[in-house]
Automatic annotation (TrEMBL):
Record Pfam families: Carboxyl_trans
Limits of the CoA carboxyltransferase C-terminal domain: 275-532
Matches recorded under InterPro entries: AcCoA_carboxyl_beta, ClpP/crotonase-like_dom_sf, COA_CT_C, COA_CT_N, MCCB/AccD1-like
This protein's UniProt keywords: Transferase
Protein name (Swiss-Prot/TrEMBL): Acetyl-CoA carboxylase, carboxyltransferase component
Organism: Streptomyces indicus
GO molecular function, one term: ligase activity
Domain CoA carboxyltransferase N-terminal: 22-273
């Protein structure tokens, strides 16, 4: 075995400082996660409970197999917006009757579970994950439909929710709806388009138009139950396949539906795996609080891969990018990890070759980000950094094996693209609280704007306001710094969640297991033209 050595000293001042900085960021993260857990707040939570109803996460807990994990996705959706953190919906992946399923649950304590623009984005992202990985989906429904004040942002794009359900069904991916309360207007099409539908007696209300709308449209007088009650749909319309006595019974029936799906993963699980040789707790002290200070990503790799065993590819060439082969929870992975931040021509060419090898061997790729981007300057431009960086981006773009990305530190500029950022469709992308991502670093961006403004003034023969320039640079730096932070980016669903570094191995193991639900094959050729 090629066990990675470690030079990390948990007693050193640098390690302790890095650990303290990370723990402070984790405390901030916990406070924001608490907002999502709180839903609509104590008042609406209590009102919901007094109606004898379970909260969204309680429903999920009863649905899942006992003592199995739930990988929640996008818990910070809508952070920094005018809408509550979490976007009135819980999404994630969990095991039901031994089957890995995509689960979505409306949070009825937030405006009755109504969908706002961020709810749509969160639902769309969950569909992408479920569809790509062929996960049966279970939708725990209690929503009044669109949040009407924001309908202009919801109505037109929101129709894709129903398209996604039918596309999953057409692809042979089972869809299940469990209706606990209102599922009105457009929301009525969620059970209408799912393969299996369970409704809770005297609770579920499914209709295109409720009694007030029917009265206005047709003059007809009707009550909730006769118009869209669960019993009517079970006995008369046929929309409900199963009638549940209460919420617990509905979740029991959902588990039985999944048990009868005859669902099989495309690949068998690899079985037990050897844990890393080093303590995962030490991951807290590897990334510096100041991302200008480099760190060795091999220290991270040694604490997440099986047996800390890593066969490095081209270790002496392009040394600011570590590439190599390992196993993680028994699954083979190829790893690309930024070592010194900047990507040069050698690193770019090395990455392109490594990605091609992974595709030949059908091995998923894991990208560990800490890059300021591709190197600039006369020497490097003349040396072909554009075409070499393009080779790496070409390889990432056309690779067919599944990709996973973790932003540990910086992820700036086109380096974010070359390391399989969000726009390059990784199956999953997570960030550590230490991560930052933007077109470039705050100081660099502010400096560029200053240089351009100074040159413009000189070209016009005008004096330059140095005091105004300093104020502008400070303002821009502050803005870019705040927009680079992981909670800001996670709020916009540019990642699938901000995670504790100590959970990295577990999260990646769950993702690798999910990926192996769907068959995949690497690209055999099929890459764009590599400019040589």
């Amino acid at each position: 075995m090629t066990v990675l050595p470690s030079a990390l000293d948990p007693a050193s001042p640098d390690y302790l400082a890095h650990r303290e900085a990370m723990l402070a960021k984790l405390d901030e993260l916990a406070a924001e996660h608490a907002k999502a857990l709180a839903g609509g707040g104590e008042k609406y939570t209590e009102r919901h409970r007094k109606r004898g109803k379970l909260l969204a996460r309680e429903r999920i807990e009863l649905l899942l197999d006992p003592d199995t994990p739930f990988l929640e996705l996008s818990p910070l959706a809508a952070w920094g917006s005018d809408y509550p953190v979490g976007a009135s919906m819980v999404t994630g992946i969990g095991v039901v009757e031994g089957v890995e399923c995509l689960i979505t649950a409306n949070d009825p304590t937030v405006r009755g579970g109504a969908s706002n623009p961020w709810t749509l984005k969160k639902a769309f992202r969950s569909h992408e994950i479920g569809y790509a990985n062929r996960l049966p989906s279970i939708h725990l429904v209690e929503s009044g439909g669109a949040d009407l004040p924001s309908q202009k942002e919801i109505f037109i794009p929101g129709g894709a929710l129903f398209k996604h359900l039918t596309q999953s069904s057409a692809a042979g991916i089972p869809t299940v709806a469990v209706v606990f309360g209102n599922s009105t207007a457009g929301g009525a099409y969620v059970p209408g388009m799912c393969d299996h539908v369970i409704m809770v007696k005297e609770r579920a209300k499914v209709f295109l138009g409720g009694p007030p709308l029917v009265k206005m449209a047709t003059g007809e007088e009707s009550g909730d139950e006769e118009l869209g009650g669960a019993e009517m749909h079970a006995r008369t319309s046929g929309l409900a396949d199963y009638l549940a006595a209460d919420e617990q019974d509905a979740l029991r029936q959902a588990r039985r539906v999944v048990a009868r799906l005859n669902w099989r993963k495309a690949y068998e699980d690899p079985g037990p795996a050897e844990p890393p040789k080093y303590d995962e707790e030490e991951l807290l002290g590897i990334v510096p609080g100041d991302l200008k200070i480099p760190f060795d990503p091999r220290e991270v790799i040694a604490r997440i891969v099986d047996g800390s065993d890593f066969d490095e590819f081209k270790p002496l060439y392009g040394s600011s990018l570590a590439t190599g082969w390992a196993r993680l929870h028994g699954y083979p992975v190829g790893i690309l990890a930024n070592a010194q931040g900047v990507l040069f021509s050698a690193e770019s060419q090395k990455a392109a070759q490594f990605i091609q090898l992974a595709n030949q061997r059908d091995i998923p790729l894991l990208f560990l980000h800490n890059t300021t981007g591709y190197m600039v300057g006369k020497e490097y431009e003349q040396g072909g950094i554009i075409k070499h960086g393009a080779q790496m981006i070409n390889a990432v773009s056309n690779s067919k094996v599944p990709h996973l990305s973790v932003l540990m530190g910086a992820s700036y500029g086109a380096g974010h693209y070359g390391m399989c950022g969000r726009a390059y469709d990784p199956r999953f992308l997570f960030a550590w609280p230490s991560a930052k991502s933007a077109v470039m670093g705050p100081q660099q961006l502010a400096g560029v704007l200053s240089i351009v403004a100074r040159a413009s003034a000189a070209a016009k023969g005008q004096p330059y306001d140095d005091e105004g320039d300093a104020a502008l640079r400070a303002m821009v730096e502050q803005q870019i710094e705040s927009e680079s932070l992981p909670m800001f980016l996670s709020g916009r669903l540019y990642d699938d969640g901000v995670i504790d570094p100590r959970d990295t191995r577990t999260v990646l193991g769950l993702c690798l297991s999910v990926i192996h639900n769907a068959p995949y094959e690497g690209a055999r050729g099929g890459f764009g033209v590599f400019r040589m």
